[in-house]
Amino acid sequence: MEFCEDCGGLMMPKKVKNSIVLVCRKCGRKKKAKEKKFKISSVSGEKKSKIVVVSNKTKIDILPKTKVRCPKCENNEALWWMQQMRSADEAATRFYKCTKCGYIWREYE
Question: Residue 48 phi/psi, 5° resolution?
Answer without folding.
Answer: -85, 125
